[in-house]
Amino acid sequence: MAIAALTFSFTSLTSCEDVPAPYEIPGDNPDTPDTPAAEPAGTGTQADPFNVAGALKYIENGGDENTEVYVKGKVVSVVSGSYDASYGSLKYYISDDGTETNQFYVFNGYAGPNRTKFSGEDALKAGDEVVICGKLVTYNGTKEFTTGNYVVSINGNGGGSDQPSAGVATGDGTQANPFNSVAANNYASSLAADVESDKDVYIKGKVVSVSQKYGATTYGTATFYISDDGKEDNKFCVDRALYLNNAKYTSGADINEGDDVVVCGKVVNYKG
To answer: What is the pTM of this model?
Structure first.
């Protein structure tokens, strides 16, 4: 398991009248208003991704199948049984409003670049807002993302009050956009065994468990695990972390399960 190096420290803790119509008249029932199809939007760049209607139009207009584009939409459903632990990819559908109307097929998509694996079939949930990067094709009459596509962001990349779904890597390790535990594990796993990263990174998460509290040692450090949701899946070990402001603990609130924290320091792929 990839774990944090010794230099981690906290940065934060915390119709005709009377005659029934023979068919349904669109818009006649105020309780079930018509939902017009979304208009194509976006240019397909990361800064201005296509919406799903825009992606469909891009394909219909003969868009280049060898060019990666960005598409934003909401998850409609994940194909049951599509997760293969060997590859870590998922098959799922997205649309502009999260319904099956004009849904778009995402074939063998990954959680991040370089074929970052999803943790399981439940890593994406209906309603999650995603931005996906990949190549758009028509295969056997189906317009779709071809294999190798990946999630760029989910629910605003974890910003604001939205939380990323378990198993999706988010963040770039900066103070403004910290890694989540999945991204931290991926980053540490990219290092050779027992090799420390050459830079400090920031990681945000919720405390899963505490191996050693600050008040239980004279060294002024604590060891604990964090994950996106405070559960065991994709947890990341923070080993002998200093307290706030990179100082030894002397007094103040101790670390507890469920605490939301941001830590900063170097990571190491301990024993591979």
So the answer is: 0.50
